[in-house]
């Protein structure tokens, strides 16, 4: 619908305007019908070759009814199946270029239609398999059949029954006056007075042709949009994949930035604070014992050491150096030692997982332990890490009362999102009365999150 002065985008919107005949839409609709007739004629000629066996069968049936030949049963079965096989085997291949031309043609009467094909795999057979298993290819094939047997005939009807025939009737008096008799329904019009009676009929046909062409173009555009464009679900799926890739790229960038911050703090600020502690210690030794200067230096010395400890905690929370240097098997024991609740740890890893998997599993364990300490009354926790084929599994079980709900702000939702980004999943079992078990499964490969989708 044309709203707020926006120009019409389709023939249907243009038809709602009072000055429709004075716009460009009648000409665009008629041009679209003419182009459809040309494209449909070429497509019909090619599809007709695929239907030659069926045409031969039709001729045999006619001759059989006339008693000229006897029809064989195997012909009735084989020839239709042969035509059907040719149509199903070659029709989709013909539909691909026809769909490209039709998307271009429909731009006359419709905003651009985006194709919804999946990207073909490399190689001839792989590419053909992709094409023949792609739903978009078969929707284009359905459109090809509609173009051949519905759209092209209707376009012919509009152009010749309305435009050409109307023009002939409108010019009937001139044709008769120059000695050209007009054949009309097996009757000939040879006098001018009779020919003048046909002029209003021709005018009505010509006047109706733009409206008929616009309606036909709109129906054609709707069919093209639904059969030649990507499915809404496929479009949505592509958008979701792009969103997931974007989120994965952000995770990769965040992980790299976190490592940079940890390295800068460890190698920069922390080293300077250590040097400051040493200098304060030396100054404290040089100061007179019991003096106010010595007390001030002692206080500054202790506060700086506390600051170093706090910074070490921050660095550990950003990315533990032990995790980066020695891996998950060495970092997890240190993590569970910091827990306020006793933890039984089991780590069964033959080889070190990729760094992004280690980081995700480590912080998943840290978040799970923090949730248990904050939201439950558990007295004991069990943490197990092991490989199951190409999957790294983390299980955290506590003996709390259960009833954990990810929607109640327990941090489980964020934990699940972080795991999903690297292609993993989180499973939660927390019946009333306990125990609560969190199982994290992550693909143990060297593919970065942004390369998974």
A few lines on this structure:
The chain is α+β, with helices and mostly antiparallel strands. It has helices at 11-15, 25-50, 52-65, 73-106, 124-132, 135-170, 172-177, 192-227, 232-286, 292-318, 321-326, 328-337, 355-375, 412-421; strands spanning 182-184, 187-189, 343-348, 381-388, 391-398, 425-429, 436-443.
Keywords:
453 residues; alpha+beta; Heat Shock Protein 90; five-stranded mixed beta sheet; two-stranded antiparallel sheet; 7 strands
Q: How would you describe the overall organization of this protein?
A:
The protein has 14 helices and seven strands. With 453 residues, the protein is of the alpha+beta class. The strands form two sheets. Strands 3-4-5-7-6 form a five-stranded mixed beta sheet, with helices on one face. Strands 1-2 form a two-stranded antiparallel sheet.
Number of domains: 3
Terminus-to-terminus distance: 39 Å
Q: What percentage of the residues does DSSP assign to strands (E)?
A: 5-15%
Q: What are the low-pLDDT stretches, counting only 5+ consecutive residues below 50? A: none
Organism: Lipingzhangella halophila
Protein name: histidine kinase
GO cellular component, one term: membrane
EC number: 2.7.13.3
List the helices and strands and how they pair.
Blueprint lengths: L10 H5 L9 H26 L1 H14 L7 H34 L17 H9 L2 H36 L1 H6 L4 E3 L2 E3 L2 H36 L4 H55 L5 H27 L2 H6 L1 H10 L5 E6 L6 H21 L5 E8 L2 E8 L13 H10 L3 E5 L6 E8 L10
Parallel strand pairs: 3-4
Antiparallel strand pairs: 1-2, 4-5, 5-7, 6-7
Helix pairs in contact: 2-4, 2-6, 2-8, 3-4, 4-6, 6-8, 9-10, 12-13, 13-14
């Amino acid at each position: 619908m044309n709203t707020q002065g926006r120009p019409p985008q389709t023939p249907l919107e243009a038809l709602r305007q009072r000055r429709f005949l004075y716009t460009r839409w009648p000409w665009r609709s008629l041009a679209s019908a003419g182009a459809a007739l040309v494209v449909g004629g070429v497509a019909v000629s090619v599809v007709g070759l695929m239907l030659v066996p069926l045409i031969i069968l039709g001729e045999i049936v006619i001759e059989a009814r006339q008693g000229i030949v006897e029809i064989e049963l195997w012909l009735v079965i084989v020839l239709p199946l042969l035509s059907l096989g040719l149509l199903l085997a070659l029709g989709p291949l013909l539909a691909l270029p026809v769909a490209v031309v039709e998307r271009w043609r429909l731009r006359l009467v419709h905003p651009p239609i985006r194709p919804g094909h999946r990207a073909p795999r490399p190689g001839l057979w792989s590419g053909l398999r992709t094409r023949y298993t792609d739903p978009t290819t078969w929707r284009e094939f359905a459109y090809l059949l509609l173009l051949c047997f519905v759209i092209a005939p209707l376009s012919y009807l509009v152009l010749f029954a309305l435009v050409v025939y109307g023009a002939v009737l409108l010019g009937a008096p001139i044709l008769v006056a120059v000695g050209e008799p007009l054949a009309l329904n097996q009757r000939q019009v040879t006098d001018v007075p009779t020919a003048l009676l046909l002029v209003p009929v021709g005018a009505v046909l010509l006047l109706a042709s733009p409206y008929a062409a616009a309606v036909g173009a709109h129906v054609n555009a709707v069919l093209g949009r639904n059969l030649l464009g990507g499915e809404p679900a496929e479009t949505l799926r592509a958008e979701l994949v792009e969103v997931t890739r974007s989120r994965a790229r952000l995770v990769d960038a965040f992980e790299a930035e976190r490592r940079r911050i940890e390295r800068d703090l460890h190698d920069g600020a922390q080293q300077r604070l250590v040097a400051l502690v040493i200098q304060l210690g030396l100054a404290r030794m040089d100061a007179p014992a019991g003096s106010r200067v010595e007390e001030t230096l002692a206080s500054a010395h202790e506060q700086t050491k506390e600051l170093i400890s706090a910074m070490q905690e921050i660095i550990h929370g950003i990315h533990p150096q032990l995790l980066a240097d020695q891996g998950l098997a060495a970092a997890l024991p240190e993590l569970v030692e910091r827990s306020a609740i006793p933890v039984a740890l089991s780590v069964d890893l033959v080889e070190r997982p990729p760094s992004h998997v280690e980081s995700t599993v480590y912080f998943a364990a840290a978040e799970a332990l923090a949730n248990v300490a904050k939201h439950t009354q558990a007295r004991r926790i069990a943490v197990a890490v092991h490989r199951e084929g190409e999957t790294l599994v983390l299980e955290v079980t506590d003996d709390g009362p259960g009833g954990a709900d990810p929607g109640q702000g327990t941090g489980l939702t964020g934990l699940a999102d972080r795991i999903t980004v690297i292609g993993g999943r989180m499973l939660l079992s927390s019946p009333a009365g306990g125990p609560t078990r969190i199982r994290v499964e992550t693909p143990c490969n060297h593919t970065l999150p942004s390369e998974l989708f």
